[in-house]
């Protein structure tokens, strides 16, 4: 009996436990049913969130235009490819929506993407073997063009899908690349989009960057939008458009001229800019080396040298020394001084003219034409005084950044501690300035003594409604000199171009009057701190304007260490760029010529001589001033270097290849540029040792050779030309 009671009690306890457990579960379900929450999580909201999906509507980055409305930076659609591998994605569809056949898919994609079949197949098969829902294709499937996208779509490959996005691109490639800059990418929790990383793209990134929109809707387990589901759409807000003062046509003139000099002279650096001196608008600006912002491959120079690379400008600084002396009333052009050398006293260091012996006792006007350092020393030390001149450097804004609306601007240093530094600053040594500082100061010569602010932004526009967000206009920021001083300076600088004694004869334009100042400055050796010597080791520069009476364009150009044999050849590079760009730009702007045509004799165009007599062609080119070398023993010209139609300087070597077996010329004294030309013309491989001029060659002069030979030359900086040695000594004294 007791055992039965015990069993009943145990059964009652078990029933009671299960009843409590059951009631607890029922109660929990009833609580969830009534409240819709689990652990403070709203299940209704959670379910809706799981069903909801957001699709980003990418905002378009603002475009960058030149002054005529031509796009310099634009956006184009690109496509990122991915593959869905999970067969559940197909669901009840009558056609497969996932990748079924990895082999077939890989074969079809390889035809479009020019990729190995096995490489594509392995990506897909690896995803299938690892039960991946979907895969991407890395760089192979990123940024596909519209043509590639359409070609793959036409294949109708199951499981291959695309995500469209916008890619920044630059229609003109390297043109103005260091002004326009480029974009990079940011990746955060909300969006992935291009952001400015350099140049205008960085400077005005806040304006260019738009605000992405979105589409919100509910979906089923397969990702398809539910029928009759609510849809929320937030439209994207595109970024503002940037309109620059850059003129694409003038920029093209500049880029082409820089490329010509770069190819012919292989300089270390070139920097050049064109400005409207009346308004301060920058119409063109470029540097070499440059880069293509679409690829950004092998960038050699991360700086916009026009604003970021101060250097000792040399004699272009004499513009401001002359202007200061005239403004102070201490300049008398007819007064004479003893040229050649200058000393403060018998114990001081000596200032030398570039002609060490000078030109005897000459007037200050002639000293300006001859670019006399002694004239500058006399004006600063004995006429104005260093303190007064320093005030003019400040008035010309040469003591500060220009404030141009570009990223990366740096400022030079005015070395003015003692008498030597004060005097050398007057003719452009010791102190450093950027080209943009010099251009800004020079605008005073086009505006009756007023300096205008340089700028590259014309306006910012909202593309959604066409309204202007910001507008730039002419701004006067200083007035260091009077209109009378301006006219005297322009007249003297004009004579440096037109008079026989002038140093700027090579810069005369064909149909326009012009004025300006040359500069030749030594370059400090970063290892020793001493100035380098030798033909190419200078900054060759020029700043000038045209036409003279009413300047419409201001241009600065500097070429660092071009491949020239002698110092005096350096102006070939700067004068070619200046004349080519200024002449073409003035005609393009419909500026009326103000002088009769001037024919330049230092450059010409190579005719098509193929099929003509070697002797006749050699005679013709020699009369034109070209050194000519014949490659071969034939009587008929087969090809020339430079090629026909090329515009070249009359002292440039011309090679004639004949219709017979090629013969090796004597390369002694040739520049590396000339030897490279020979290699390209004859298709012979080239190796070289050293730098400077050729002193030895492995294929003896007069020997025949074929394309399968390898030419090896040795070059040396040592020169036997006593005249050049003397010039270098003079330069060292001049710039010490």
Automatic annotation (TrEMBL):
GO cellular component, one term: plasma membrane
Subcellular location: Membrane
Region (Disordered): 715-736
Enzyme Commission code(s) on record: 3.4.16.4
The protein's annotated pathway: Cell wall biogenesis; peptidoglycan biosynthesis
Top EC group: hydrolase
Acidic residues composition-biased segments: 720-736
Keyword Transmembrane helix: yes
MF (Gene Ontology): penicillin binding; serine-type D-Ala-D-Ala carboxypeptidase activity
Transmembrane region(s): 9-31
PROSITE patterns attached to this UniProt entry: PASTA (PS51178)
InterPro entries recorded: Beta-lactam/transpept, Beta-lactam/transpept-like, PASTA_dom, PBP_dimer, PBP_dimer_sf, PCN-bd_Tpept
Keywords: Membrane, Transmembrane, Transmembrane helix
Main localization of the protein described in the UniProt heading: membrane
GO biological process entries: cell wall organization; peptidoglycan biosynthetic process
Pfam families per the UniProt record, alphabetical: PASTA, PBP_dimer, Transpeptidase
PASTA domain segment(s): 658-717
Reactions this protein catalyses: Preferential cleavage: (Ac)2-L-Lys-D-Ala-|-D-Ala. Also transpeptidation of peptidyl-alanyl moieties that are N-acyl substituents of D-alanine
PANTHER family according to UniProt: PENICILLIN-BINDING PROTEIN 2B, PEPTIDOGLYCAN D,D-TRANSPEPTIDASE
Family from the record: Belongs to the transpeptidase family.
Protein name: serine-type D-Ala-D-Ala carboxypeptidase
Lineage summary: Bacteria, Bacillati, Bacillota, Bacilli, Bacillales
């Amino acid at each position: 009996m007791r055992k039965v009671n015990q069993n009943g009690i145990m059964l009652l306890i078990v029933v009671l436990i299960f009843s409590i457990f059951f009631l607890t579960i029922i109660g929990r379900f009833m609580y969830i049913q009534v409240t819709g929450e689990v652990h403070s999580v709203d299940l209704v909201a959670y379910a809706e969130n799981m069903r909801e999906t957001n699709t980003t509507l990418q905002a378009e980055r603002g475009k960058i235009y030149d002054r005529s409305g031509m796009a310099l930076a634009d956006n184009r659609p690109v496509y990122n490819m991915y593959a869905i591998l999970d067969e559940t994605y197909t669901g009840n569809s009558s056609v497969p929506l996932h990748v079924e056949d990895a082999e077939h898919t890989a074969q079809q994609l390889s035809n479009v993407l020019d990729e190995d079949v096995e490489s594509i197949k392995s990506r897909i098969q690896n995803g299938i073997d690892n039960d991946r829902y979907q895969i991407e294709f890395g760089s192979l499937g990123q940024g596909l063009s519209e043509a590639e996208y359409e070609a793959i779509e036409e294949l109708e490959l199951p499981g291959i899908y695309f995500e469209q996005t916008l890619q920044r691109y630059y229609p003109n490639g390297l043109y103005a690349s260091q002004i326009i800059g480029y974009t990079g990418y940011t990746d955060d929790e909300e969006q992935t989009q291009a952001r400015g990383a350099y140049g205008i793209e960085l400077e005005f990134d806040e304006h260019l960057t738009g605000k992405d929109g979105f589409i919100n809707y509910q979906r089923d387990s397969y990702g398809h939008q539910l029928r009759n589901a609510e849809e929320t759409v937030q439209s994207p807000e595109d970024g503002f458009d940037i309109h620059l003062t850059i003129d694409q046509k003038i920029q093209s003139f500049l880029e082409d001229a820089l490329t010509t000099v770069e190819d012919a002279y292989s300089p270390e650096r070139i920097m050049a800019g064109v400005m409207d001196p009346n308004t301060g608008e920058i119409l063109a600006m470029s540097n070499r080396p440059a880069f293509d912002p679409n690829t950004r491959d092998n960038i050699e120079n991360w700086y916009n040298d026009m604003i970021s690379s101060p250097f000792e400008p040399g004699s272009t600084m004499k513009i401001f020394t002359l202007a200061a002396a005239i403004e102070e009333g201490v300049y008398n052009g007819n007064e004479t001084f003893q040229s050649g050398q200058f000393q403060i006293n018998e114990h001081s260091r000596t200032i030398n003219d570039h002609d060490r012996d000078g030109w005897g006792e000459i007037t200050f006007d002639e000293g300006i034409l001859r670019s006399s350092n002694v004239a500058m020393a006399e004006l600063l030390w004995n006429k104005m005084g260093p303190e007064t001149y320093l005030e003019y450097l400040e008035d010309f804004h040469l003591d500060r950044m220009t404030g141009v609306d570009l990223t990366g601007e740096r400022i030079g240093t005015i070395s003015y501690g003692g008498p030597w530094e004060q005097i050398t600053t007057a003719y452009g040594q010791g102190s450093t300035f950027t080209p943009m500082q010099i251009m800004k100061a020079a605008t005073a010569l086009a505006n009756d003594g007023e300096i205008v602010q340089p700028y590259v932004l014309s306006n910012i526009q909202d593309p959604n409604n066409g309204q202007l967000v910001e507008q730039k206009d002419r701004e006067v920021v200083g007035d260091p000199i009077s209109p009378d001083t301006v006219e005297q300076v322009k007249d003297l600088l004009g004579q440096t171009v037109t008079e026989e004694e002038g140093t700027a004869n090579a810069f005369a334009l064909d149909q326009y009057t012009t004025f300006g100042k040359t500069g030749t400055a030594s370059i400090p050796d970063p290892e020793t701190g001493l100035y380098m010597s030798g033909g190419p080791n200078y900054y060759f520069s020029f700043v000038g304007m045209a036409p003279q009476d009413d300047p419409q364009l201001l241009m600065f150009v500097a070429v660092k260490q071009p491949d020239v044999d002698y110092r005096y050849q350096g102006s070939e590079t700067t004068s070619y760029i200046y004349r080519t760009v200024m002449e073409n730009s003035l005609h393009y702007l419909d500026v009326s010529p103000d002088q009769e045509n001037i024919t330049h004799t230092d450059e010409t165009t190579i005719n098509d001589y193929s099929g003509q007599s070697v002797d006749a062609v050699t005679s013709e080119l020699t009369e034109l001033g070209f050194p000519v070398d014949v490659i071969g023993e034939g009587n008929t010209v087969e090809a020339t270097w430079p090629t026909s139609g090329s515009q070249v300087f009359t002292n440039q070597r011309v090679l004639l290849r004949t219709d017979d077996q090629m013969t090796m010329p004597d390369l002694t004294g040739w520049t590396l540029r000339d030897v490279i030309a020979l290699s390209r013309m004859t298709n012979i491989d080239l190796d070289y040792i050293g730098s400077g001029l050729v002193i030895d060659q492995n294929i003896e002069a007069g020997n025949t050779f074929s394309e399968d030979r390898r030419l090896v030359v040795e070059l040396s900086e040592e020169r036997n030309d006593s005249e050049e040695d003397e010039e270098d000594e003079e330069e060292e004294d001049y710039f010490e």
